Amino acid sequence: MRNKRTSYVAQAGMIAAVYAAATLITMFLLQGLAWGPVQFRISEAVTVLAVLTPAAVPGLTIGCIIANLVSLAINGTGALGLLDVVFGSLATCVGALWCWKFRSRPKIALLGPVLANALIVPAYLPILLQGLGFYTIPFTDVSLDGAYLPMYLFGVLATGIGQALVIYVLGLPLLTALKRFGVVDKPQPKSV
């Protein structure tokens, strides 16, 4: 029993480290693509691990908390950045829980992180962005100052598309490769 618990904690810790490191690498190499209204957080591809092990649920959540705390410190978003730490990590946790629940149907399971991020992140992002002085839709001159609903709807669309691309273009092949190469232990038949 103790060995199982140790293995679970070790898996969760490794997954947290991979998620946080991949997010921070994305932040440094791809600049704003890991945060903001148009996101391609490459690290979200590893949310597929929640299809393989329940340890991925706390691992991904803790990894997201770490990445968002580091982002808060680096970007200097102050108290507004705590919205991302709390609610962004909540979205990751909800998505990972969905993945584990629907693990027998991987394509449905992977909808969890897409839907959770598409619905939760845009709910607080307009508040965070306006607090930081961003009032237009990125790459356009369309002003959303004081227009919460249009900004939320834009966020649902933009975050959802970015998340779906990362999950299905990077994550699904990763999941397939992990299963193919036997990273997941197949359940052994119970001896009578």
Short description:
This protein is mainly alpha-helical and 192 residues long.
Keywords:
mainly alpha; 6 helices; 192 residues
Terminal Cα span: 20 Å
Q: What is the element string, with H for helices and E for strands?
A: HHHHHH
The amount of beta strand, in percent, is under 5%
Counting H and I runs of at least 4 residues, what is the number of helices?
6
How confident overall, as mean pLDDT?
84
Radius of gyration: 17 Å
Shape summary: globular
How many DSSP E strands? Answer: 0
Largest sheet: none
If you had to describe this structure to a student in words, what would you say it looks like?
With 192 residues, the protein is mostly helical. Helices cover 67% and strands 0% of the residues. It has helices spanning 2-30, 56-75, 81-101, 106-109, 111-131, 148-180. Residues 187-192 have low confidence and may be disordered.
